Amino acid sequence: MFKKIKTNELAFDIDGVFADTFRSFIEIAKNEYGFQIDYDAITEYEFWKHMDIDEVMFREIIQRILDYPVEEGIRPISGATDVLIRLANLGPLLFVTARPERDAILKWVNFHLKISDTNSVRLESTGTHEEKLPILLKYGVKYFVEDRLETCYLLDQASVIPIVFEQPWNRKPHPFKTVKDWGEMADMIEWTVT
User: Fold this and answer.
1) Closest to 40 in 3D by CA, of 148, 180, 150, 167
2) C-alpha to C-alpha distance for 94 and 137, rounded to whole angstroms
3) Same structural domain, 63 and 124
4) Which of 12, 15, 102, 172 has CA 20 to 30 A from 165's CA?
5) What is the rounded distance in angstroms from the CA atom of residue 142 to the CA atom of residue 102?
6) Residue 91: left if φ>0, alpha if ψ -120 to 50, beta else—which one?
7) How many angstroms separate the CA atoms of 57 and 29, rounded?
8) Contact status, residue 18 vs residue 146, Cβ threshold 8 Å
9) What pTM does this model have?
């Protein structure tokens, strides 16, 4: 039995956990470039290295997603917004992302959470997956919700407990707790503040 997680011990990745970024990539590739990708066929986080994808197209789409997540219409993953707003009412939310800059994705987070208290959301942008760990340790995070398995192994070695948010690219065997959706994530949280 997994013990309930205290809200102040929990942090979240954004892409693939809160933001449905991979689906947005697929939609842009299909609608604007005529390139078909089946979401469930993405069996690797760095899927572009394992598919015949035009590099120029890939870089253009990624840059748009990085620079203009609100304008590109990236949607939250189903159920995420309700759970995160509920958490924000209990204390500050912490997001740690490997995106290279924070302003565009912070705008996206604020757009979807619509939280008036600017102190309710902390967002750290590290530029690399490996740099997430020092940030999590700095904030005293004990549990991190992540979709990239390689990052989960790194966190596990440093005693940050990874919770894998299930996606097609992380369905390989691994030793970590997995949640299939935000309802399962909500069930793991201790909702009373002590």
Assistant:
1) 167
2) 12
3) no
4) 102
5) 23
6) left
7) 8
8) no
9) 0.94
For tokens 């840059």, the residue is 63
98: which DSSP letter?
A: -
* Domain final position from 44, 67, 90: 67
The number of distinct structural domains making up the chain is: 2
Range of the domain at 108: 5-20+76-190
- The amino acid occupying position 146 is E
Could you read off the pLDDT tens digit of each residue along the chain, which spans 194 residues? Answer: 568 999 999 999 999 999 999 999 999 999 999 988 889 888 888 777 777 788 888 899 999 999 999 999 999 999 999 999 999 999 899 999 999 999 999 999 999 999 877 788 999 999 999 999 999 999 999 999 999 999 999 999 998 999 999 999 999 999 999 999 999 999 999 998 65
Bridge partners, 121 (sequence order): 93
Per the listing, tokens 């407990």 go with 161
Shared domain for 162 and 110, answered yes or no, is yes
Residue with tokens 């989960």: 152
Domain co-membership, 15 together with 27: no
- Give CA torsion, residues 130, 178, 143, 74, to 10 deg: 70
Is the same domain home to 50 and 99? no
